[in-house]
Design brief:
Length: about 60
């Protein structure tokens, strides 16, 4: 019974998180990490000339 209750609680929590409509701001530490990572990738990537970096940055920040 406890397993079933836990499973139902987990299901409800994931479903409610899936339908969250208000964007949650990215913490400063995450933004700094993403900025540094993307800058390094843009600088040293072998495919750097074929990547649309502004679009990639926008997509990464939206998904973060």
């Amino acid at each position: 019974m406890k397993k079933l209750r836990s499973l139902v609680l987990l299901f409800v929590a994931t479903r409610s998180a899936q339908y969250q409509t208000t964007p949650v701001p990215v913490p400063d530490s995450v933004k700094i990490f993403l900025d540094k990572s993307l800058t390094l990738l843009e600088t040293y990537s072998l495919e750097r000339r074929t990547v649309d970096w502004p679009r990639l940055r926008q997509t990464v920040y939206q998904r973060a």
